[in-house]
Amino acid sequence: MIKRGLVLAIALLSCASSAAAQVLTPPTGTTGLTPIEGSVTNVEPVRVPLGDAVTGSETRVTLQFQLQGCLDSLMPLITHYEVRGRRVNVYVTALNAHNEQSMVARCVAMPQVSEQVRIPGLFQRNQIRVVFMGQLPETRPE
Predict the structure, then answer these.
(1) CB 88 within 8 A of CB 118
(2) Positive or negative, the Cα torsion across 20, 80, 91, 136?
């Protein structure tokens, strides 16, 4: 019952975050989902080709997550960004998929996973604010 409720919540978040609804299916052996926070490890402004002689720009933000079990996995991120002038807010939903085998597996260190979020435009680290699900956005002057 709880698992079905979590899957439904993920599906609803997917619909709300994207015009093209996507369905997230938990990996085989998943016993539960838990929201997790990550940290920003890199911000890289890059030029991307849009055509033969045309380039655009985007900022790639690398996020690192520590999983909660040796055999757990990270569900695909659900992200939404809002550009406000020279600043951008990135809202991230990251879910740790608990694997039933993680209960008995032992590991030296918990696994870490990195994911990238792409934002159109060029931004420096101090212009980007990342807010993870369950975290209250801090207010800061524009």
Answers:
(1) no
(2) negative
R_g of the chain, CA atoms, integer Å: 17
Cα distance between residue 5 and residue 63, in whole Å: 27
> At CA 111, angle to CA 109 and CA 64, rounded to 5?
125
Predicted model pTM: 0.74
Kindly state the tokens that stand for 90.
């990135």
User: In angstroms, rounded to a whole number, what is the distance separating the alpha carbons of residues 82 and 130?
Assistant: 11
Q: Are 89 and 82 in contact (CB under 8 A)?
A: yes
Q: Could you read off the pLDDT of 83-109 as tens digits, one per residue?
A: 998 999 999 999 999 998 888 888 888
